[in-house]
Amino acid sequence: MSVFALVDCNNFYASCEKLFNPKLRDIPVVVLSNNDGCVVARSAEAKALGIPMGAPWFKLKDEARRHGIVACSSNYELYSDMSNRCVEVLSAFTPNLEVYSIDESFLDLSGFERVGYQAYGQQIRQRVAAWLGLAVCVGIGPTKTLAKLANHCAKKELAGAEGVCDLTAMTAPDLTALFSRIDVSEVWGVGRKLSARLADMGIETVQQLYAADAETIRARFSVVLERTVRELRGVSCLSLEEIVPDKQQIMSSRSFGTLIYDLAELEEAVATYISRAAEKLRNQGSLAGAVQVYIRTNVFKPEVPQYQRCIAIPLPEATSDTRVLTQWALRVLKRIYRPGFGYHKAGITLLNLTQTANQQFSLLSGEGGAGDVQSRQLMGALDAINARYGRGTLRLAAEGIEKSWKMRRGNLSPGYTTDWHGLPVVRAK
Questions:
Q1: Which CATH number is 8-142 given?
Q2: Cβ distance 42 to 27 under 8 Å?
Q3: DSSP-assigned letter for residue 56
Q4: In 3D, which of 253, 270, 255 has the Cα closest to residue 343?
Q5: What is the spatial distance between Cα 353 and Cα 314, in angstroms, rounded to a whole number?
Q6: How many helices and strands (H and E) does the chain possess?
Q7: CA 324 – CA 196 distance, rounded (Å)
Q8: How far apart are CA 351 and CA 368, in angstroms?
Q9: Using an 8 Å Cβ cutoff, are 69 and 46 in contact?
Q10: pLDDT 10s per residue in the chain (429 long)?
């Protein structure tokens, strides 16, 4: 029988911030989105105060002063590194693992029944806590959907478990009682709109969805929800995705810290986004056959003049050369730019991706094309240097230096694990 575990880091972004700053240990902490806009993560203390997800930070400042809430800018580099470290720890507990998100991983525990799933889940929690200082919850079930639901139970302590919930150890009557207490919206893949439609059929709890006729669910909704019903019944329909599929398109975009009016600053931003996307493109061994660029003003301020435009163009030859991709992206930008507007956001997308190994060379291949050996060597050296010494160590001049337009991160914590200058320092008195 298949057995899956879902390991989820508790309040991950906020926990990473607390981990290296003892002053925040018992303080309510929120993590803000790009440009320090909205709340995207909350510590347990902030949740207890009723701070909602997605709330604009400027509306919470009075409440923050009243309750001593600390706001942190998103430190994506730190979160990504801690996520990778957590995955490395979890890899020691199973040969088969799927990284589902930055703070969640599915583990295949098939064959570990002699160890005892509940005890094994506690070992996982203790190892992650001891080695990384992070708290995790573990949900165990015969399907991925049930493992996800068990993780919810572990977090809310619905099944009397301390951070671990093993649905495989529960009897049928106990499962029925448990599922009858859980809202159907807690099922993986059942969102707010779908919950409302299910409620019209009288399905409001997990148990009612479990007992629903699968064929009727398929006819009224989709084969995806039918598969969810079967997963709730213990029929495994979803396997682990151990190999992450290559992206079919690569996007890079950001809102600006201040409005941009000049074409030159927009060009710096677009060149920077192309550089990041091209690096990802090469990492997965792909070439891009088209480039899309878009710009827009601030749609949240309807009182100011509005403008947005997006154009995609095919390239003469698929490439992963940052120089060539930047050249074409800037051509597109000049076509869509209109003076007199304050631009709030820009972005690029690399389209029509193909594998480098499958690309057919052309006798007329130009600079940066699939057949350009010097281009591949140059881009390889660029990636190697930036990987060793930090992103942006080598970059195109088109990306600029000052970058006054970059997003605001006024409360950014140090790169404790990603930057030598961010290492914690202990000073003796």
A1: 3.40.1170.60
A2: no
A3: B
A4: 255
A5: 11
A6: 14, 13
A7: 49
A8: 17
A9: yes
A10: 789 999 999 999 999 999 989 899 999 999 998 888 899 999 999 999 999 999 999 899 889 999 999 999 999 889 999 999 999 999 999 999 999 999 999 999 988 888 899 999 999 999 999 999 999 999 999 999 999 999 999 998 876 668 999 999 999 999 999 999 999 999 998 888 899 999 988 989 999 999 988 899 899 988 999 999 999 999 998 888 765 666 788 999 888 888 899 999 999 999 999 999 999 999 988 999 999 999 999 888 888 889 999 999 999 889 999 999 999 999 999 999 999 999 999 999 999 898 887 666 665 555 555 557 888 899 999 999 988 887 888 889 998 887 777 777 778 888 888 887 887 777 776
Pull the structure tokens for residue 288: 């891009």
Q: How is domain 250-399 classified at the architecture level of CATH?
A: 2-Layer Sandwich (3.30)
In angstroms, the CA 286 to CA 397 distance is 24
Q: What angle do helix axes 322-336 and 373-389 make, rounded to 10 degrees?
A: 90
Structure tokens belonging to residue 45: 């203390």
- Token pair 């969640």: residue: 104
Contact criterion met (CB below 8 Å) for 98 and 241? yes
DSSP annotation of 414 reads P
- Nearest-angstrom CA–CA distance, 292 and 347: 8
Q: CATH 3.40.1170.60 residue ranges in the chain? A: 8-142
Distance in angstroms (rounded) separating the CA atoms of residues 175 and 159: 9
| Rounded CA Rg of the chain | 25
Q: Where in the chain is the domain with CATH 3.30.1490.100?
A: 250-399
| Contact present, 110 and 3 (Cβ < 8 Å) | yes
Facing residues of 304 across strands? none
Round to whole Å and give the CA distance between 334 and 70: 42
Please, are residues 36 and 410 in contact by the beta-carbon 8 Å criterion? yes
Cα gap 236→2, rounded to integer Å: 7
Is residue 74 within 8 Å of 16, Cβ to Cβ?
Answer: no
CB 4 within 8 Å of CB 140: yes
Name residues whose C-beta falls within 8 Å of residue 55's C-beta, 6 or more positions apart in sequence. 38, 39
